């Protein structure tokens, strides 16, 4: 949206078909018989505040992210939520070589 803040919306579909799987070891074929085919679909919102200087190799800055989703399981017609929180911070130890970083995640 502006500066270091991003708000995004999206959707996804996940389909799992264990009966289509062929196993190298024929003795493992029974595993797919115990599972059911499943399709889930839903929408999510991603809320991000990111002041890191580099996304893949940060040396300073903060990342705060909250992802919230609502999904529907077509197998048993139930709804479920998926939630994810992430916080991390990076501090350069200059003039000494090194970096102090921490991260906390919850799902």
UniProtKB/TrEMBL annotation:
<dbReference type="InterPro" id="IPR043864">
    <property type="entry name" value="Omp85-like_dom"/>
</dbReference>
<dbReference type="Pfam" id="PF19143">
    <property type="entry name" value="Omp85_2"/>
</dbReference>
<protein>
    <recommendedName>
        <fullName>OMP85-like membrane spanning beta-barrel domain-containing protein</fullName>
    </recommendedName>
</protein>
<feature type="domain" description="OMP85-like membrane spanning beta-barrel">
    <location>
        <begin position="4"/>
        <end position="91"/>
    </location>
</feature>
């Amino acid at each position: 949206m502006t500066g270091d803040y991003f708000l995004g919306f999206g959707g996804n579909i996940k389909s799992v078909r264990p009966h289509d799987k062929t196993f190298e070891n024929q003795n493992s074929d029974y595993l797919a018989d115990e599972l059911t085919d499943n399709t889930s679909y839903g929408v999510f919102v991603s809320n991000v505040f990111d002041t890191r200087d580099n996304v893949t190799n940060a040396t300073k800055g903060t990342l705060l992210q909250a992802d919230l989703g609502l999904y529907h399981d077509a197998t048993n017609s139930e709804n479920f939520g998926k939630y994810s929180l992430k916080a991390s911070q990076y501090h350069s130890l200059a003039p000494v070589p090194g970096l102090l970083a921490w991260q906390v995640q919850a799902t």
